[in-house]
Amino acid sequence: MALTLSSHSTLGVASLLFISFHIAIISSQAAIAATADEYNVVSLGAKPDGVTDSTRAFVGAWLAACSSEKPATISVPPGRFLVGGATFSGPCKSNAIRWRIQGVITAPADYNVLGNVGTWLLFQHVDGMSISGGILDGRGAALWACKASGKNCPSGATTILFSNSRNIVVRKLTSLNSQLFHIVINGCQNVRLQGVKVFASGESPNTDGVHVQLSSGVAIMSSKIGTGDDCVSVGAGTTNLWIENVACGPGHGISIGSLGKDLEEAGVENVTVKNVVFGGTQNGLRIKSWGRPSTGFAKNILFQHAIMSNVKNPIVIDQNYCPNNINCPGQFSGVKISDVTYQDIHGTSATEVAVKFDCSPKNPCTGIRIEDVKITYRNDQQPAQASCVNAGGLAFGLVQPSSCL
Ligand SMILES: *[C@@H]1O[C@H](CO)[C@@H](O)[C@H](O)[C@H]1NC(C)=O
User: Fold this and answer.
1) Domains plus CATH for the chain?
2) pLDDT tens digits along 357-376
3) Per-residue pLDDT band at 82 (split at 50, 70, 90)
4) How far is the CA of 41 from the centre of ligand 1 (A)?
5) Is 125 a residue of the active site?
6) Which of 229, 230, 318, 358 does the annotation list as catalytic?
7) Centre of ligand 1 from the C-alpha of residue 330, in Å
8) Is the distance from CB of 330 to CB of 357 less than 8 angstroms?
9) Tell me, what's the pLDDT at 27?
10) CA-CA distance, 62 to 121, in Å (whole number)?
């Protein structure tokens, strides 16, 4: 914007100076707004056609945002964007990077492209970032079919991984049909997932909805998760985890574990799971550990206000975990489970044993507390059972099936 003196030659000198000064301010503000450190992936070369590889534009937008001193927004407009394996690394100059996603980000159609890289979209060493909206389409179905056929297939990729990062908020993101885990939080502090949706077939292998490990201060709120594996899985080294208002199904439930895979393992502590609904899942509220020595533990766990609808194992602690009974370690679990509360859990079990505590002979479960739990079998037609092995604790209020603690 150029202001020429000649066009204002009738104005007095004072007002001229004032006007040009004023315009200079407006134009510099406009310049800030226009570049407001906003990076649109389409301006950087991404094509919303679903077939052109837009990886470079996405990584370019990240590099620009991450090197900006000011808060920066990366915008992904409507359309389908094909993105291959991409790493978004910090540390960044500002701690306010925002992704505003309106479109769909899709993985390559050929699962071999990401087959052995482990992760599709990796964020690492980032402090202060939010992601709002968007759909991530992992296109995992062909890989699941390959695995089901018994052929030799790549293991596949986690859709989105946050690693060694902090102060992350993810709002209203949808993750579809991941090849492997959908969302993984590893080695992070203060991560909030809010209004997230995760969907994959109930038959899809290892497609956990959200997996958390070695992280503290993670919250998963108001989310809907249906997959072929755990809706949420909580791995070793997770502390101060909060899960609230989550609907789970299909899937294997909300699981702490599997723990005790390694001899030296960090514990799980202070986990709250409240206001959750399970529909037709394999498990409801589960804690599982392998039957082998380990320094791992799980303590101070609260399961509160849950509704089960036709769940195979509504309440379960399994310290002889060994899926498909292949290569089972067959030892006593070293994982110590203590102070686990089940409060206000209601609904129906799809099997006769609705409550099962199978704890370690070496480290019996202690401080289990059951209060106001009523689970029936086959919609009240038959009484459900509870089974306890090496489990100690107390029951309060109405507990049905009656407590075996
Ligand atoms: C337990 O975790 C919650 C967050 O999930 C946190 O607010 C609370 O302070 C933690 N309690 C302890 C004793 O650390």
Assistant:
1) 2-400 (2.160.20.10)
2) 999 999 999 999 999 999 99
3) very high
4) 39
5) no
6) 229
7) 35
8) no
9) 41
10) 12
- Residue-level pLDDT at 331: 95
From ligand 1's centre to the CA of 176, what distance in Å? Answer: 31
**Per-residue exposure over 219-241, b if at least 16 CB sit within 10 Å of its own CB, e if not:** bbbebbbbbbbbbbbbbbbbbbb
Residue 117 in this model has a pLDDT that exceeds 70 = yes
Q: What number does the ligand 1 atom closest to the CA of 240 have?
A: 2
Give the distance, in angstroms, between the CA of residue 332 and the centroid of all CA atoms in the same chain.
Answer: 31
Closest alpha carbon to 341 in 272, 242, 254: 272
CA–CA separation, 400 and 385 (whole Å)? 8
53 is a catalytic site residue: no
Residue 17 has pLDDT above 50, yes or no: no
8 Å CB contact between 354 and 401:
yes
Provide the β-strand partners of residue 130.
Answer: 98, 169
Residue 276 near residue 304 (C-beta atoms within 8 A):
no
Residues with CB under 6 A from ligand 1: 240-242, 270, 272
| Closest to 373 in 3D by CA, of 295, 321, 304, 311 | 304
Report the pLDDT value the prediction gives residue 324, as an integer from 0 to 100: 86
Residues 20-67 pLDDT 10s: 334 343 444 444 444 559 999 999 999 999 999 999 999 999 999 999
Residue 13's Cβ-count burial label (10 Å; 0-12, 13-18, 19+) is: exposed
Closest CA to 85 of 39, 60, 53, 47: 53
